[in-house]
Automatic annotation (TrEMBL):
PANTHER family: 3-OXOACYL-[ACYL-CARRIER-PROTEIN] REDUCTASE FABG, SHORT-CHAIN DEHYDROGENASES/REDUCTASES FAMILY MEMBER
Keyword check for Transmembrane: no
Any Pfam family hit: adh_short_C2
UniProt keyword list: NADP, Oxidoreductase
Protein family according to the UniProt entry: Belongs to the short-chain dehydrogenases/reductases (SDR) family.
InterPro entries recorded: NAD(P)-bd_dom_sf, Sc_DH/Rdtase_CS, SDR_fam
Coiled-coil stretches noted in the UniProt entry, renumbered to this chain: none
Gene Ontology molecular-function annotations: oxidoreductase activity, acting on the CH-OH group of donors, NAD or NADP as acceptor
Protein name (Swiss-Prot/TrEMBL): LALA0S05e01112g1_1
Length: 313
């Protein structure tokens, strides 16, 4: 792939040279990469991980329950076999994303199960929602939700970046005669983090009250912009995808968890210009775009709202 400055130069020439197809068409392949997927046993992750494997990425799945992770991994091996994909390593890691020390420990251990490859792609889906009126919200419950949904988003990005930078500095100081130069500014490539935010970070859902979730997701969107600015100089891109209502375990629990569930679903879809909830497959394209170093090489700090038009009304 020709680098971006060369492309700009050739576009400016009077007689531009004929580009090759790989100069024109981006690649969405992820061969040789390890992608960390948090919330790896969740409904949205279920589909996103299948797409990652189909694009050749190994995956490290982080979630709370060992049993659910093991079940997910077995299911994914079936998926690989049924679709005749090449053998790909799927590792599983019980991990509370709201615990910074555990997240760091897990991220450092992942290369040991992936032939030493340091993960440089992230799909962060871990999170949960609570529908509680603000006046009744127990402080500890709200703090816990913010710790998992917001702080967890920062912990996973920090741990990955620290490890990538340490490895890059070590490589440079081994190959460089001048150690002080090697310590200057680690330059990484192809590093991309995709965090699942929510349209709840941009609007207030109605009618269900969910103040802690809404503020945590608004925080995720702005954290993404902050990290994108801090880490652009290292070659790390950070973006978010903010979905509208998706038909997954999270929303099915809300719908079936109360007698008013069906009416609530009706209320939700009536507020979506496209008149329906999303299918998890409808987020695969955005994820692959943001992970691809050729398709989204100039995209960072972006929040892609994919909501069937909900936030337009
Ligand atoms: N489903 C929707 O309508 C919808 C809409 C907008 C945004 N989102 C967001 O998308 C993401 C995925 O949602 P989903 O619908 O797949 O939900 P899900 O409940 O199916 O999956 C979420 C996963 O996160 C895991 N998780 C929760 N707390 C964790 C913790 N402390 N540490 C590690 N893992 C933890 C859960 O065990 C679960 O497997 C979430 O961040 C959610 O907020 C969902």
């Amino acid at each position: 792939m020709t680098n971006t400055s060369n492309q700009v130069e050739s576009a400016q020439q009077d007689h531009p040279s004929i580009p090759s197809l790989s100069d024109v068409l981006p690649s969405f392949r992820l061969d040789g990469h390890v992608t960390i997927v948090t919330g790896g046993s969740g409904g949205l992750a279920h589909t996103l991980v299948q797409a990652l494997l189909a694009q050749g990425s190994e995956v490290a799945l982080l979630d709370l329950s060992v049993e659910r992770l093991e079940y997910t991994a077995r299911e994914l091996q079936e998926f690989i076999k049924a679709n005749k994909l090449p053998k790909l390593n799927v590792s599983t890691w019980p991990c509370d994303i709201g615990d910074a020390a555990i997240v760091d420990e897990v991220v450092r251990a992942i290369p040991l199960k992936h032939n030493g490859i340091v993960p440089d792609k992230l799909v962060h889906t871990a999170g949960y929602c609570q529908n509680t009126p603000a006046l009744d919200y127990d402080a500890r419950q709200a703090e816990l939700l913010v710790r998992v949904n917001l702080m967890g988003s920062m912990y996973i990005c920090q741990s990955m970046s620290r490890l990538l930078m340490q490895r890059s500095q070590r490589r440079r100081s081994v190959s460089s005669e001048d150690d002080s130069a090697a310590e200057a500014c680690p330059q990484l490539s192809n590093v991309s983090y995709v965090l699942i935010g929510s349209m709840s970070g941009c609007i207030v859902n109605n009618p269900q009250p969910q103040v802690a979730y809404n503020m945590a997701k608004a925080g995720v969107i702005h954290m993404v912009k902050s990290l994108a600015c801090e880490w652009a100089r290292y070659g790390i891109r950070v973006n978010s995808i903010s979905p509208g209502y998706i038909a997954t375990a999270l929303t099915k629990k809300v719908i079936s968890g109360s007698p008013e569930g069906a009416a609530l679903q009706q209320e939700w879809t009536s507020r979506v210009p496209m008149g329906r909830m999303a299918d998890p497959r409808e987020f695969v394209g955005a994820m692959l775009y943001l992970l691809s170093s050729s398709a989204s090489s100039y995209t960072t700090g972006e929040n892609l709202v994919i909501d069937g038009g909900y936030t337009c009304w």
